[in-house]
Structures are given as structure tokens and as C-alpha cells.
Amino acid sequence: MGEKTTRRTMLKSGVAAAIAALLSPRQSSGHQVKEYPDSMGVLVDLGRCVGCRSCEAACNAEQGLPEPEKPFNDMTVFEELEHGRQRRTDETRYTVVNRYEAPGREHPLFRKVQCNHCQEPACLTSCFVNAYTKTPEGAVIYNQDVCVGCRTCMIACPFYIPAFKYSSAFSPRIQKCVFCYDTRLKYGKPPACVEACPQEALVFGRRQDLIKVGRRRIEEHPDRYVDHIYGEYEAGGTSWLYLSPVPFAQIGFNTELPHAPILDSVKNFLGIVPMVLTIWPALFAGFHLLATRKETAAGEAVDHPEEEKR
Questions:
Q1: pTM of the full predicted structure?
Q2: Is 164:151 a contact under the CB 8 Å cutoff?
Q3: Looking at the domain that runs over 40-264, which CATH code has it been given?
């Protein structure tokens, strides 16, 4: 009994330590973020978004996603957040817009959510089968043919974006925004959501240029924007950048992220992945062998009861 308890305790401790190592935001000293000179991006001006959901409809059409339960002109979807449930991306929608009532503002703010296409993606660095690729254009794309459905990327992502396609148990697949890479980005065209925005709240361009545009807007209108471009440094930097008229924490952004890539926070976790993959099959094989031996012994006792009495 003591030995079983010790093994169980060790296993739980190992898993807990792995999760803690993964989720603990630690600053890195000396890590140089990889530069992508040709990386494109999108600058999102939250002060201009009116919550029309045109971006959602455009993404749905471009990616061939199913029609939503509520049409895109139905604004009652924003009530979900008011009831404590933030709309999240999943296999049926690669981008969503949420509404926030910011303190001191007469009108609500709207925030578009999608994969931020990190400069050094945690989903990519955590994937031991290399199912993810960071393209020179800035997109983080996914290859379902090599995915084994471990869902480590879902845990590693600091923005909680990758979603698992639960409706297909025999074909593991992660679903997320792909920056319209195959149909637009690799041809130099803006994503469908950007093209569809009637308020020009989304600006497409080279990431380095968008940062300059964002800084210029902040300098020219200090009373209109918080002095920060979200995504310039968070988690090592992202291709999607945000300007906001209120502190980002008030509209659902994670403001506790380190500037170092999440890669630095998952190294310990990644170190145990090969060990887990090696040990678990052996453990299950041992359990199976023990169970088989017990069944065999029980069967022999039933077949030869006279021998059992002796």
C-alpha cells in the first residue's frame, strides 16, 4: 500500500510541477526574439470598432465555416459576456467580437479576438511532432496530418486560442485562425476580416510599419489612447497589435504576460514530454500484464478447484 501511495504521489507531483513550470510567467535574461523582416501584421484600433461583426462574417465565408446559430446581425450574442461568459473561438468560428462596458465611458468598447500569430509561438515550441509552422509572412499555420491530438498547444498558448475539434474523435485536429494564409496572405493580400471592416478599425501592413503607425497615433492623440501597443512585446511580440482608449486589463487582455517568449516558460515542461511518452506506454503495458496474470490465475482456479483445495 505504501509503495502504491508513493508512486501515485510522485506521479501527481511530477504533473503538478510540469504544469507549474508551463504556466509560470518568468522573465528571460538574454533571449533574443527571432526577427521576421517580412512579417505582416494587423493593427487593431479598439476605439474605432463598433461591433458590427462584419469581420466574423467575412472569416466565416473565407474559411468555409458553418453558419452560426445566431446570424451575424444579431447583437444579442454580446449579452453572453454580460452574463459572465466570454465568447471564445472554436471549430465553428476563428474570430469573435466581445463587448465591454469600460468604467467612465458612455459607450461600450468592442474587442476582436483571434490567433495573434506570435513572433515565437508557444504552440509551435510546445508541439513535439512539429505540427505548426511560422511563415516568413508572419502566419502561424497548422498541419493536421501530423497532429496526434495531444493538445499541448492549447495549454501552452498564453492567449487560449487553439481549439480542439471534439466532434471528430478519430481525426484529431486543432482549429484556429490561419491569417488567411493560403488564400490571401502569401499573395500579399490582407485577411478577409481586415478587408471587410467598414470602420477601418483593422489596418494591414508590415509589422514594423504598423508599430510606427501605432506610436504616431498615440503621440498625436495622447488623450485618445493608452500609451501602449499591446502585442509589441507581450510574449515576445505578436503579429496582431492593439491600440486602446482604456487600460487593456479592463477589456479582457492578459496584462501579466512577460516580454520574453513563452518558449522560455515551457522549457521545463517540454523537457518531460519525451520522458512521459516513454514511461506511460511501459506503465500501461505493465498494468495490462498484471491484469492478464490475475485473470489467468483466476481461470485456472475455476478449472481445477481440487488443486486449489490442496
A1: 0.76
A2: yes
A3: 3.30.70.20
Chain centre to alpha carbon of residue 275: 24
The DSSP symbol for 43 reads E
3-state secondary structure of 134: strand
d(CA 226, CA 248): 8
- Which residue type is seen at 66? P
Nearest CA-CA partner of 225 in 242, 207, 250, 205: 242
Please, which pLDDT band fits residue 165 given cuts at 50, 70 and 90? confident
Tell how strand 202-206 and strand 40-45 pair up: antiparallel
- Say how far apart CA 138 and CA 240 lie, in whole Å: 10
The single-letter DSSP state of residue 302 is H
pLDDT digits (tens, 9 = 90+) for 211-264: 999 999 999 999 999 999 999 999 999 999 999 999 999 999 999 999 888 665
Amino acid at 149: G
DSSP label at residue 69 = S
Q: Count CB-CB contacts under 10 A for residue 173.
A: 17
Q: Which three cell numbers stand for residue 171?
A: 481525426
